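Here comes a specimen:
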Amino acid sequence: MVGIRAQQKEKTRRQLIDAALGQLSAERSFSSLSLREVAKEAGLAPTSFYRHFSDMDELGLTLVDEAGLTLRQLMRQARQRIADGGSVIHTSVITFMEFIESNGNIFRLLLRERSGTSTEFRAAVNREIRYFTMELCDYLQQANQLDAEVAYLQANAAVTIVFSAGSDALDVDKREREQLTERTINQLRMIARGAFDLNNRLKSKRRS
């Protein structure tokens, strides 16, 4: 019986999260949503909301955490595809752009709250981006035998470029998105080459 109640509670919580995400768009930000709107979209009474979240801020922070986790899981899957023989940069960018196309509202949430007025929200988004960057840094360090500092520089630059490209990709047509994808791939390849050269110079310097 306890298990069934827990499942129902999680199902209702999920309804509220999906309802909030479903109302986000290019025209509507999270800050414009009301508790009543979210509850109505989820098919629940407003009072039911408080059994799952203390207020809209807590719901928003949950959405940010979920968005970051979804993106990190997706990129882990991309790295698995890379391990099976794909190109690191090409596969990663294609996977990221597919995420943008399928989850535009989630990515808009990250972009908007990163520069929003709430200190707590900005900190949450920056924390998710930092997790994303450090996972990429660890991967580059191991896969390419890079110095830790070089791996971080490459990861940080790559995340900055990819997030900027993702922002541009939200509101363009298919042809423009394809061009943007190709441009992003080329930019990341240039950064990777620079990281490789820097890494070799550091190794040479230590040996001399």
The mean pLDDT is 90.
